[in-house]
Amino acid sequence: MKKAEPAGELIDERIRELGDWRGKMLARVRELIHEADPEIVEEWKWMGTPVWSHGGIVCTGETYKSVVKMTFAKGAALEDPAGLFNSSLEGNVRRAIDIHEGEKVDEKALKELIRAAVEANVKGKSAKKDRKQA
Asked: What is the pTM of this model?
């Protein structure tokens, strides 16, 4: 039986496998996620999706033929003053950012969005805990 690889190694491997702009963008997004929240945890779920969590899923980093997609698990509940969300806008819970080749990401706004997602997760956990104790 093959020993499971840590998520970080699997994400490194995905970035190398892509070998094009998508790999570079996924690597940059990953750096920004860690800059925004040094305590974030990397996971590998659903047979090959990079996932970043802190108090719950913050976002995923999916790669497709023409897009790198960051899906925020609770994106619909987040303020997005910079208008980064441009995909999955019709849902009640998730929101996504599709990044196409050659597009520039507003790195400051993205880090703020990541911090807001972490805060929403952490506050949500403490609110549930408070209700259980009441």
From this structure: 0.88
